Each structure stands twice: as structure tokens, then as C-alpha cells.
Amino acid sequence: MRKPRTQPIHDGVRRRMVDAVEHVRKRMLKVARTLGAAGIPYAVVGGSAVAAWVATVDLAAVRSTQDVNVLLRRDDFEAARAALASAGFVHRRSSGIDLFLDHAGSSARDAVHIVCASEQVRAGEPAANPDIAGATEFDRARVLDLESLARIKLAAFRRKDRVHRADMIGAGLIDASWLDRLPEAPGERPRSLPSSPDA
Hints:
The chain is α+β, with helices and mostly antiparallel strands. Helix content is 35%, strand content 15%.
């Protein structure tokens, strides 16, 4: 069996770890600043939104994320695209998803992903995305309200959604009573809220 390395992590590696988290935060704030200055309503969703809400109760439970997900109304998309382009973002469409990259050579994993309010991300999902009316101000960015965010995570079944759900449960932000807030849906709707994404 391979022995773990016992020497300290090199300072350069540790710095890169910190920089990776800060880079995502700066991207989120740049998007928020750009859309806010253009008067375009938006809300941060996905892992960044979950992290923001978890941070309100337990900093030690905050999980980092690679990308930034932003909820926009369909009618505002063209104005948002123009505003983000003026801030240096590069628009790409990949697998039906609108992405904004930091620059032309960026990876799609390291991008701003646009999600449209009041629309289904994929056909067959139990509910459409919420509107952005209840977004809350966090650290100079507007984040989707907790109830709407929880409804998204309770109705989704990708592994990362289960992880986000577990983080919210572990922080005490949601519990089993939240299941009653889900829309009626067939199939895999959860009947309980296990604290592990693998349960």
C-alpha cells in the first residue's frame, strides 16, 4: 500500500488552493456588479448560493464550487449577454447551456452558467425554475432566497444536487418538513431527507 506523503504541502500549492476559491468568488462578484450596473434582475443559484446560505449558520460546513450559476429571466438574456461581453466575458453555448467564460481559452467547468427563471432546465423535471423576485443580498451579490433554492435542490437528483441538499440539511437550513413544499411530481421525489448524498 502506498504511504501518504508526510512532508508539508508546499506553500505554492496551498496558495493555489486558496486562489482557486477566491477566483470563483471574484467571478461571482464581477457578474453581480456587471448585471447590477446594467439594471438587469438576476439571482445567484447552484453551489455558490448553497454556500452563501450555509455560511450564515456554519462557516466550517461551506463547500467550494468551480462555477457560478446565475438565474435570469428569458427576456433579459440579450441585455445580460451584451453587459457581460462589455465586462470581458466570452459567450459560448454548449449542450444547450449558455456559458460566459473569463476568456476564450477558459474551460466550460470554470465559467458562468446561465439558468432561465420560470423554465425547466431539462424536459421531465418536476417543476420549472423559480423566479428571481425573492433574491437576497449577500456580499454584494443577489442570491436566490432560501425557500426557492431548497425547492430546486429537493426536486433535483444529480449527485451534486444531493450533495448540496445534504449540506443544507447538515447546517440545519432545511428538514423533513420542507418536503411538503415540493410540487406534486412522479418518480424519484424524496420521501425523507437523509443527511448523506449517498443515502
